[in-house]
Amino acid sequence: VAAPTGAIIPPSEELLFRQVSPSFLKVGGFLSSQIFRPTGKDDGLLSVDRSSIEPSPEASLTRFNANGGQSIGVLAATVAEFHGQELACHEDPLHHNAAHAVANFQGLTRGQCEKKSKVLLACAEARGYLFQLPAQGPGEA
Amino acid sequence: LPKVPFLNPKFCGPRFETNAMPVEVLPELSAYRALVVAVAKELYRAKHNDKKRLPKGFEQRFHLEMQEVLPGSAVPVMERVLAAPLQLGLTDEFDEARDLIGLAVEEVAAGRPIPAAFPVKVLSAFKDLGRTLRPDEYVYLVPPGSATGPRFDKDVRGSLLLVESTSYTDEVDIIGELDTVGLGDGTYGIRLEDGRTLAVPDTLDRDDIMMAASALPNLVPIALRGTAVFDRHRKITKLEDVEEVSLLDSPEELSLFNASLEQLAALPADWWGAVGSIAYQEEDLRQLRWTFYRLALDYGVPLPVLFPKEPGQVRAEWRPRPRDVSMEIDLGDGRGYIHALNLQTQEEFEQDNVSLGNYEEVATVLAGWLPQEV
């Protein structure tokens, strides 16, 4: 697994946008803490968008979906909140998304990933959706 | 009057771990006595072909007392009070009946025919023995002077009753889904895991149940305790009597659980978007649904919200704030990883390799982290 090569983003109140997959949202708005954890195919790196580069959560979602993603909303935690969980955030600009960054979960145990993702979801839920697509049917709040 | 040891039945199972006899199990002792008497009468008749009637006071010769309950698990010591000291050292039809009952239990438990000497016409007397036992409970019928004896449980009871009959009744503690429309006659039924719906006999709280059900979403888990008729294949064919009905009546919890299962079922085969993608199998989701019904109704574990994890895995989440609890389940081997976190205190817990089918274990691990609902 390749380690992130971009510079570490210093702790700040900068929001890091995280896209919400419809699979991780249930009727009634119940969200899975998996939103704030890399899946098995992410090499331990959680993709986020930096609000200092792309300040619009709506634009962030639109770009994500235009590139094959499936997001129905945008949540966010700050860089400081990631650092508070001992998760380093690295710059990782892509050719189609200059705001792209990653939070590094590599080398963590299962329990550590669980705890950090649950804390980050609680932070994001307290903040609420920064942008949300209109409900399109059952399962989408 | 002199007393001699007659039987030391050893009751085993969760209810007997405190080395005491629950009062509701005491009918087993009188049922056992009645069985011994019924067998003894037939043994006497077989021995005395020339006598049509039993001697006067035959049954009164058999007086059993429970002296004490010994530990390990619970062993109610049953002694026979002899009518006269002269009987000491002698055996009679009652002693023979005890031994023959033990032999019949042993043979049937081993899958063999009942002993030829056993009077077939009294097999039905087994109907009252073992009725109060639960599926995970059993009794060793330990005769005096022995360390162990044949094991009697619900299966053995059923086998004995099926020797001469095509059905038998037993007390049941079952779960299913409430079916208020399937019968179409204003009554309600319970839909079992195999898809069959059984009519629920009229109960005092029927109107309450129907009213509660009308406010709930579809697929309401229901637990029922009563008496049922079983066929030769040990399948319930009819509910005879119902003592207690309970619904899982949290509409929000039920809605979330049902909706999350529907969403899992609706995921396309390519949902994971990578090699190894596969849609969730209907049978896996059906088992998952019934497992959580059982955990909810029998162990008070709230229904979770289910999420896809990775192909072949499902994630259950509960969020009774400030706690956040999850269980990742491998549908292949039914084992899971439980993680719980208190967001206020940062107290944390994890346990891997928990078997979802071991309800007791799952409930124990989750206890303290989730609100108990029963």
Explain this structure.
The complex is a heterodimer of chains A (141) and B (374). Chain A has 141 residues and is α+β, with helices and mostly antiparallel strands. Helices cover 24% and strands 20% of the residues of chain A. Chain A contains three helices and six strands, in the order ββαβαββαβ. A six-stranded antiparallel sheet of chain A has the order 4-5-2-1-3-6, sandwiched between helices. The longest helix of chain A is centred in the last third of the chain and has 18 residues, at 110-127. The model of chain A is unreliable at 137-141 (pLDDT under 50). Chain B is of the alpha+beta class. Chain B has seven helices and 16 strands. In chain B, the strands form four sheets. In chain B, strands 9-8-7-10-11 form a five-stranded antiparallel sheet. Chain B has a five-stranded antiparallel sheet with strand order 12-13-14-15-16. In chain B, a hairpin with a 5-residue loop joins strand 15 and strand 16. In chain B, helix 1 (27-47) crosses helix 2 (93-109) and helix 2 packs across helix 3. The model of chain B has no long low-confidence stretch (mean pLDDT 89). The A-B interface holds A 23-24, 26-28, 30, 32-34, 39-41, 110-111, 114-115, 118-119, 121-122, 138-139 and B 252, 255-256, 259-260, 262-263, 267, 271-274, 305, 307-310, 315, 317, 319, 324, 326, 337, 339, 341, 343, 348, 350, 352.
